[in-house]
Structures are given as structure tokens and as C-alpha cells.
């Protein structure tokens, strides 16, 4: 079996107004120290930036993206290749993203454990997670893929899955209620794709029922609900936002040990 390698990444956000402090994801940079490469992926749907920024300047945005590609695309050889002399170091991405502090800024660097044969799939899934609306509907990330990325982040932090030893199974399906259990922490991944509202409602109802029917058993756990980032990109008036708010509100009436956050904030909550 292949040896695990690290896939590091950082999401690029655009914040045109520092007073409003609203931002959108416009890119993601990847780095694999063991394979000595890095690459920047930019958003292709420029209309999302245009609709977000009243003073959108296409030439300025294009210039910034060219600069990112120059800084991070290690497969492009030129006369300034010394900028990649630390490409095989763990700190390469942290060192080279920390200087972006104005309209364009990178989120803290995150890491997942991957394998040489799956690293391309993992970069593709992360791209679909953080640049959600750049993909056709049929290619957008689903619950199973969110779950897979979540488990790989847990693996990087050496968190062992104890699900098989605990037997918290759902009624009627004999499936585990949670995707991952470690110590007193339980994790559940959910995709809030706006095109699966009917299935989503049923999924949340079943999950809520399973929690309520085992309220005493799960009272010792901190329960983390991890959702894909596209929910944060949807309007506050969207059906999915309403479903999510009602879901969390109802759970909070019955439980005081449930926390929900997007996949992008998952790593910082398990450190």
C-alpha cells in the first residue's frame, strides 16, 4: 500500500470593501511537499465577482490572478525559478500566502492526508468544495465526498475512528448515525446542494429522529455537523438556508451539544 503524503491548501478570498468585510472565494492554491509542486486554481465564473463588487475592474482582477499563477504554479519554468527553492518544505505555502492582506487574502493553510494515487481526485474535490459554482450542477460535490474529505483531515490529525466499536446505528437501516466518532466527539457530514431539497429534508428528518431517539446515549458527545461550503454562498432567502436554520434551531431546542460549521472551518475546530 502506498505511503500517505500531505496535500496542503489555502483558499483565496476577495474582500473589496474592508468596512463591510464580506468576501467570496475566488481561488485555491495547493502544495504537496513530498512531490515538490504547487498550483493555483482561479475562479472561472467572473460574473460572480462582478455581481459581488460594484466597482469590479476586470483588468485588475486578471492582473491579480496572473500574479497568483506566477507565485504558485511550480510547473511553469522561467528565469525566476528560485521562488520555488523551498517547494519541498512544509512551510512553503504558509510562507508565501502570508503577505496577501488587502482585497485578496488567503485563509489559513489546511492539510489532509492523501495517497499518490488519489491526490488528483482530492485536489479536484477540494476545488469543487471551495469553488462550488464554477462547476456544472452534475459535478458539484456531494455528501459522500464531503465525508471523505472530512475523514482525511481527521486522519492528518491522527484522530482514530471508533465508530465500529460503539454501535450507534440508525433505526431500520442498520447504518451508523455518525460518520466518525473519536473519544467524546461525533461527526456527521451533510451536503446542502440546492438541487436536492426534497432528499435533503428527508435526510435531516431521519437524522433528527435518530438523535432524539438516542438522546441519553449521545448526551456525552459533542456532535459536529459538517456541511459543504456552498450553503454559505447561497442567498439568505434560499430554501436551503431556511431548511438549515430550521434544522439547527430545532436541534438546539432539544440539545446543547450540537455544533455546525462548513468544511472550510472544520480543521480549525479539531486542532
Task: Looking at this protein, list some descriptive labels.
DUF3037; 271 residues; 38% helix; four-stranded mixed beta sheet; five-stranded antiparallel beta sheet; DUF3037 domain-containing protein; single chain
Structure description:
This protein is an alpha+beta fold and 271 residues long. The chain has two domains: 5-139, no CATH class; 144-270. The chain contains eleven helices and nine strands. It has helices at 46-52, 58-72, 92-97, 119-130, 143-156, 163-166, 197-213, 215-218, 230-233, 239-254, 266-270; strands at residues 5-14, 24-32, 37-42, 104-106, 110-114, 180-182, 185-190, 222-227, 258-262. The strands form two sheets. Strands 1, 2, 3, 4 and 5 form a five-stranded antiparallel sheet that branches. A four-stranded mixed sheet has the order 6-7-8-9. A hairpin with a 4-residue loop joins strand 2 (24-32) and strand 3. The longest helix has 17 residues, at 197-213. It is globular, with a radius of gyration of 20 Å. The two termini are 28 Å apart. The model has no long low-confidence stretch (mean pLDDT 83).
Draw up the topology in text:
Layout: E1 5-14, E2 24-32, E3 37-42, H1 46-52, H2 58-72, H3 92-97, E4 104-106, E5 110-114, H4 119-130, H5 143-156, H6 163-166, E6 180-182, E7 185-190, H7 197-213, H8 215-218, E8 222-227, H9 230-233, H10 239-254, E9 258-262, H11 266-270
Parallel strand pairs: 7-8, 8-9
Antiparallel strand pairs: 1-2, 1-4, 1-5, 2-3, 6-7
Helix pairs in contact: 7-10
Amino acid at each position: 500500500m502506498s505511503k500517505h503524503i500531505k496535500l496542503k491548501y489555502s483558499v483565496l478570498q476577495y474582500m473589496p470593501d474592508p468596512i463591510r468585510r464580506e468576501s467570496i472565494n475566488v481561488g485555491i492554491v495547493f502544495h504537496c511537499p513530498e512531490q515538490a509542486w504547487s498550483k493555483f486554481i482561479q475562479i472561472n465564473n467572473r460574473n460572480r465577482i462582478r455581481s459581488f463588487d460594484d466597482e469590479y475592474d476586470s483588468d485588475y482582477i486578471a492582473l491579480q490572478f496572473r500574479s497568483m499563477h506566477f507565485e504558485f504554479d511550480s510547473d511553469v519554468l522561467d528565469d525566476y525559478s528560485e521562488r520555488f527553492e523551498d517547494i519541498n518544505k512544509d512551510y512553503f505555502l504558509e510562507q508565501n500566502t502570508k503577505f496577501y492582506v488587502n482585497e485578496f487574502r488567503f485563509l489559513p493553510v489546511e492539510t489532509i492526508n492523501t495517497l499518490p494515487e488519489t491526490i488528483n481526485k482530492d485536489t479536484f474535490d477540494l476545488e469543487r468544495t471551495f469553488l462550488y459554482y464554477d462547476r456544472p450542477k452534475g459535478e458539484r460535490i456531494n455528501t459522500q465526498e464531503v465525508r471523505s474529505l472530512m475523514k482525511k483531515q481527521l486522519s492528518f490529525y491522527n484522530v482514530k475512528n471508533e465508530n465500529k466499536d460503539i454501535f450507534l446505528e440508525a433505526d431500520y437501516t442498520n447504518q451508523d448515525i455518525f460518520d466518525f466518532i473519536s473519544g467524546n466527539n461525533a461527526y456527521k457530514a451533510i451536503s446542502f446542494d440546492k438541487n436536492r431539497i426534497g432528499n435533503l429534508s428527508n435526510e435531516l428528518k431521519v437524522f433528527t429522529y435518530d438523535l432524539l431517539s438516542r438522546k441519553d446515549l449521545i448526551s456525552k458527545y459533542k456532535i459536529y455537523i459538517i456541511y459543504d461550503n456552498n450553503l454559505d454562498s447561497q442567498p439568505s432567502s434560499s430554501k436551503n438556508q431556511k431548511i438549515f436554520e430550521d434544522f439547527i434551531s430545532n436541534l438546539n431546542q432539544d440539545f446543547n451539544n450540537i455544533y455546525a460549521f462548513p468544511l472550510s472551518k472544520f480543521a480549525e475546530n479539531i486542532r
